[in-house]
Amino acid sequence: MRKGLLLTAASVALVSSLTACGGSSSSADGSGSDAKKPKIGVILPDSKSSARWETADRKYLSEAFKAAGVKYDIQNAQGDKQQFQTIADQMITSGVNVLVIVNLDSGTGKAVLDKAKAQGVATIDYDRLTLGGSAQYYVSFDNTEVGKLQGEGLGKCLSDMKAKKPIIATLNGSPTDNNATLFAKGYNGVLDPKYKAGEYVKGPDQSVPDWDNAQAGTIFEQMLTSEPKIGGVLAANDGLGNAAIAVLRKQNRNGEVPVTGQDATVQGLQNILAGDQCMTVYKAVKKEADATAELAVSLAKGKKGETNATVEDPEGKRKVAAVLETPVAIYKDNVKDVVADGFVTKEELCTGKYAALCTKAGIK
To answer: Where in the cell is it found (predicted)?
Structure first.
């Protein structure tokens, strides 16, 4: 896996209130017909790796652009690298002033960013940094902290279960996603000392190509076959976690083996309420989207963007101005906070058998 970026500073004050990842596209126009008016293009990566890209990011970005009264075009590449580049070409030709991308991999991302730069289009890496790329800005969460929360969360759940020298299996995210590298840096920083001290036993450890949940299920079945006594699963997001839970359920071991996650998806939260998943990491996507929208609108209007951090691109050997938000660990006792924040609704979470579990968890 690639070396991750390093947070090098977080001391630049926010001057403006930056508050802050479906094949169909969304677009809206501001008033007037002046071609010089701000126009922002956004390329999302897929809808397979995580539900968040369509259910949260598209929604919040659209709302923010509409509120700002700017033209925008949001499209989803659906995991297709060629389509990703085609969408970018179309957006640049259509006259976007700013291009925001969530790369599928750094190679494809770099090609798109470099082309945009050559056309005088301002660029923002959204959620994932493009290694070796040329984005002027980066907006995301502190992704090493995300991984740290996952490692600590697994440790808490194992401690609560009074587990003795559990064998830990790890389902890492895609090796082409720099964020997966950062998550791993965070949770390995927590788990490695446990392995060294003999408190935990390091078990199977494998990356899941393209965050593919179906592949994750196959990989975890193979892990469980090779090591039947797996006692904990560090899964890098809720989709991978659910894939592991499905395999454990076949053996009536769901709930006995703590599994982590990330993204606070409806499915992940339901798994937590049911006791099949021990925790997830909530990243307030609205904050990330709002920060990106405010930054993009400023750039589209020819203004300088305001940031609160700097990250290092180790491949490009450059520092990138950034806005980084803070992730939060979610367990059964604070699932209600995700609902209260409006990220998921009670109606979509508390369906069927989960209604009683929601009531017990204090979800109103």
So the answer is: Cell envelope
